[in-house]
Amino acid sequence: xxxxxxxxxxxxxxxxxxxxxxxxxxxxxxxxxxxxxxxxxxxxxxxxxxxxxxxxxxxxxxxxxxxxxxxxxxxxxxxxxxxxxxxxxxxxxxxxxxxxxxxxxxxxxxxxxxxxxxxxxxxxxxxxxxxxxxxxxxxxxxxxxxxxxxxxxxxxxxxxxxxxxxxxxxxxxxxxxxxxxxxxxxxxxxxxxxxxxxxxxxxxxxxxxxxxxxxxxxxxxxxxxxxxxxxxxxxxxxxxxxxxxxxxxxxxxxxxxxxxxxxxxxxxxxxxxxxxxxxxxxxxxxxxxxxxxxxxxxxxxxxxxxxxxxxxxxxxxxxxxxxxxxxxxxxxxxxxxxxxxxxxxxxxxxxxxxxxxxxxxxxxxxxxxxxxxxxxxxxxxxxxxxxxxxxxxxxxxxxxxxxxxxxxxxxxxxxxxxxxxxxxxxxxxxxxxxxxxxxxxxxxxxxxx
Length: 449
Prior knowledge:
- 41% of the residues lie in helices and 17% in strands.
- It is an alpha/beta fold.
- The strands form 5 sheets. A 7-stranded mixed β-sheet has the order 4-12-11-10-7-5-6, sandwiched between helices.
């Protein structure tokens, strides 16, 4: 009887696996046929997540140290978030911004408490928040000009990334993003990163705004220096320009502070946020000081979906969860453990050049191309990504545990040991070709287990 039950269970498991495999194949075929060719994706279909892990259609488990690119700060299927989404979905998913809903005001108040700003406008995304911030900066410039020609030049930093919509792309520095869509919005000038002399040279009387990521994310996890930030604040004040902090990736707790700019004494005029704000639902926001907010009046800006009741209730629950579960303490503690562990690996692998970042926003700089390490990590059940060709980016959820940090470091050591190394094209002599480098004995010894 027992053998018969076991046979039936095995048969059911095989049938379920076959059904899942068929669905997986169908999903991949339909994606290949029907979606725009905008992403390089591996042939894997993820179906669910729990905590810091995700699962694919075949049931394989992955430790998520990418967090939906800084979106899933509470991991996957967090019970408090699930409860609020279920509750609000049964009440009202969307109400027009022509009317008030129950959660926009309380959420705006909480964001003001976290940020030191005064007023909020809700958007669908980070890119839309950047667009709105640029518009708000232009309105402020017109108001301050008092009938004269407004200051229209916008300063941004080299290596910056602010989004893919037209205005956001115009203040994004790397040519690979900009050139296919040129000409873009005119009047943008890029300042060398952390170069105070270049900042002073370009911040003239025609500048109306400067846009800064306190920690560049897509640019490779580079932090703006205190000296540079403070001088930008001084120059903005002197010239009557607005200082805009792009905290879309580094804000809302990612660094162990509410906002990354809070490591500086001087505040920005405008702050843009998104990514983790609604715990995976699409929501961004523009935060600003009262004097900046006074430049806008009804009809000058708007949005259809930004700030609906379901997403705002979810965002409020996210912020409350971070506070009540003291997750900033966890972000700081796990961030230290992760960085220390990575630096220890740097002593074993000479091609691991630098570990930088703050909290759970960590970049691992390699002297070789990083994409192969992302692929090898995926094969070994780790989710990470590579930005700027040679920087492995780690953005785990705020709820990550010490045991999960240790597990990641153990698996990541194997990834470093087993992946063939490719020298970046920029480092290849003229006339040569990039080639895979065999695994060195140092790596072989470290990855032998």
